[in-house]
# Entry
Amino acid sequence: MSAPSATAGAAPLTPATPPSPTPGLAILVLALLLSIQPVTTDLYLPALPALTRDLGATVAAGQLTLSALLLAFGCSQLVWGPLSDRFGRRPVLLAGLGIYTAASVASALAPSMGMLIVWRVLQGAAMGAVVMCARAIVRDLYTPLTGARAMSKALTGLGVVACLCAPLGGMLAQWLGWRAALLALTAYAVGTLALVALRMPETVQHKNPQALQPATLLRTWRQVLGHPTFWAFSLLTSATYGGLFTFLAASSFVFIEVLQLTRTEYGWMLLSTSAAYFVGTFLCRYLLARLGLRRTVAVAGGMSLLGGCGMALVALAGWHQPVALLAPFYLFMLGHGIHQPCGQTGSVGPFPQAAGVASALNGFVMMLAAFATGGWIGAHLNGTIWPLIYGVLFWSVVLGTTSWTLVQKFGEPRHAA
# Structure
């Protein structure tokens, strides 16, 4: 466990030495907390075209159930982060999981697209507390390099969950309807809430009683936002998530409506992409042990760029079949399994005493990119595969450039002065 160091200008800290979770429990809880994001998005994607038609809404309105959720997810972290630095991760986690559970039930019962969007926004805000705390807990318990390895283990668990979500969502949507797919989120939230409530101790060793004071908060934000390592890794996580979100937001319409897959087939297709991500998290740990952080990210940047360019070349060649388009995208997902653990831990690494705020700002930047991507996709879906191709290609170029330039220059996390 890393020893906290004082942040410049920080207020006096209240002494506290809470017990640490066992390594196995920590990884299990982190995996479940981080997995709430793909559960919330992937599980209902096979049902998205059907719920859009059933509620008599436009494609753009259907896209808002995803993009508005992610905007709320990103913005809410700016509130949850300082709260967790002040009061600890555990109470924020319990509150977030409780609100998420209630919003999940309401989403499944929504009578209109407008109400569904409202409840999905609340669900996204609650999800912000859960994921932000998970990233901050990694910094509470580990140094940056060790944290990248621990994060990759937790994200391996996320890969398992994501693999199950896609086919499960497709089967639920096909057999029981889209409301059943949304209701399944409730069961996941209740189980995770019970585990955190009964087994997970507080991980913040020193809570900051002045973390919510405006002057302290502004000083901390300025410190985080002025650090080049934060921006190098935040751009990395934003670009890799932007590429994934492009696929998530466009693929259900492209593969079901344009390429004529059934909802169940689409679910299995998503499983295959999650499996590639799953393998990427194992590859991340292998490369970190042998190459270190910066060279590992550089290798992953090459995978991402090859994946995006490969999809574009396949599409330009006229091979508009699911298997042909998916093959290069698997390379992108392998890179995603490396970029996320390295990027998330790297962006928070310099700020041991402000891990909540740094995690929140990283999440906010990621979700701004995702929201902008969702808006672009909603406006450009036109009954062809090209919005999907152009989006993934764009983000893969950003990823390759960031991996080989900014991360190489600023990629060794240093404690903030």
User: Anything to note?
Assistant: The longest helix spans residues 144-175. DSSP finds 15 helices and no strands in the chain.
